[in-house]
């Protein structure tokens, strides 16, 4: 049985930030709504497993590991292996890709199913200007390694940034198609570092999506992924992620988020609502009790979930 919030939205996804640390300094990163560096109170592998077990028992079977940069954790393979033991329907990871070529096969053997790789530019100098790292070639090798290892799908996350990479759109479409990856075109979000330069860097995706729509041979709407469309174009697949001021996106949200230090967030744009660390560190609880307490917290958090951008009911709007 799947939990649903008071808006009728099913709770199907858990997005787990495993670290705040990152080897990049991207000018747009939302850092899952948190700013800061690596902290000593990051969740341990077994703690992540207990949260995953509680979520799984409540019908949440899709997990995504995020950061920061998840591959900076030297125990990331253990984390994946523990979550995979729960036999989720989907276990994914988002990464900047810098260390992916080194980890791809090991992560696949541990049970990771798919990977999202953030690539803000296909031009070396622009890539370095956006990320602070001269890593484009290494990251592209990581994408190739992930595809070779058998991840399906592999997605390229391309955040459009005015003045930096908006003229690379068709280069990305071709690159993703040639690699055998799905291109995910993402709108800059006014959160984290993206909030500081939002007006300067934000690009409206409408014209890009309209052009792709005209060329698409098929369109598939992903009901449980914010109802967003996948466009099939010349042998490739292109998705658009448009969360900002988008009530339709919010009304199809199916996720909760776990921060790197063990708190539940109901939305990227909102502060944490429930601390799980106090449960996980309570020495009077055994693992079974901890799982039950975490389940109670997840149920409560689900009851607090609501669309950040709501459909206006005011007259004339």
Which characteristics define this entry?
11 helices; twelve-stranded mixed beta sheet
Please provide a written account of the structure:
By secondary structure, the chain is of the alpha/beta class. The protein is 34% helix and 18% strand. The chain is built from eleven helices and twelve strands. Strands 7-8-9-6-5-4-3-2-1-10-11-12 form a twelve-stranded mixed β-sheet. β3 (90-95), α3 and β4 form a beta-alpha-beta unit. α3 runs parallel beside α5. The longest helix has 18 residues, at 287-304. The protein is globular and about 55 Å long. The model is unreliable at 313-317 (pLDDT under 50).
Largest sheet: 12 strands, mixed
Q: Give the CA-based shape.
A: globular
Output the strand order for the largest sheet. 7-8-9-6-5-4-3-2-1-10-11-12
What is the distance, rounded to the nearest whole angstrom, between the alpha carbons of the first and last residues? 37 Å
What structural class do helix, strand and pairing data support? alpha/beta
How many beta-strand runs?
12
> Helicity level, as a percent range?
25-40%
Poorly predicted tracts of residues:
313-317
Task: Report the order of strands and helices.
Answer: EHEHEHEHHEHEHHEEEHEEEHH
Number of DSSP helices?
Answer: 11
Rg calculated over all Cα atoms: 19 Å
> If you average the pLDDT, what whole number results?
91
Strand content: 15-25%
What is the oligomer described by this structure? single chain
């Amino acid at each position: 049985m799947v939990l649903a919030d008071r808006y009728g939205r099913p709770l199907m996804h858990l997005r787990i930030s495993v670290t705040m640390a990152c080897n990049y300094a991207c000018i747009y990163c939302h850092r899952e709504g948190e700013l800061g560096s690596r902290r000593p109170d990051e969740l341990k592998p077994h703690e992540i497993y207990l949260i995953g077990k509680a979520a799984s028992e409540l019908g949440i079977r899709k997990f995504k590991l995020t950061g920061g940069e998840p591959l900076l954790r030297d125990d990331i393979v253990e984390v994946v292996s523990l979550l995979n033991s729960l036999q989720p329907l989907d276990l994914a990871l988002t990464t900047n890709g810098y260390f992916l070529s080194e980890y791809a096969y090991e992560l696949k053997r541990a049970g990771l199913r798919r990977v999202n790789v953030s690539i803000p530019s296909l031009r070396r100098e622009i890539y370095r200007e956006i990320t602070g790292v001269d890593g484009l070639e290494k990251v592209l090798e990581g994408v190739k390694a992930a595809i070779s290892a058998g991840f399906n799908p592999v997605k390229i996350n391309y955040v459009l940034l005015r003045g930096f990479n908006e003229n690379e759109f068709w280069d990305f479409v071709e690159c993703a198609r040639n690699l055998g990856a799905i291109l995910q075109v993402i709108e800059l979000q006014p959160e984290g570092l993206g909030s500081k330069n939002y007006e300067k860097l934000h690009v409206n995706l409408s014209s890009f999506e309209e052009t792709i729509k005209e060329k698409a041979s098929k369109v598939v709407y992903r009901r449980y992924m914010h109802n967003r469309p996948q466009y099939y174009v010349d042998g490739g697949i292109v998705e658009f992620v448009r969360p900002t001021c988008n009530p339709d996106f919010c009304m199809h949200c199916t996720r909760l988020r776990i921060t790197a230090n063990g708190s539940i967030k109901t939305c990227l744009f909102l502060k944490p609502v429930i601390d799980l660390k106090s449960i996980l560190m309570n020495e009077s609880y055994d693992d079974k009790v901890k799982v039950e307490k975490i389940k109670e917290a997840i149920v409560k958090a689900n009851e607090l979930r609501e669309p950040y951008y709501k459909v206006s009911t005011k007259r004339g709007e």
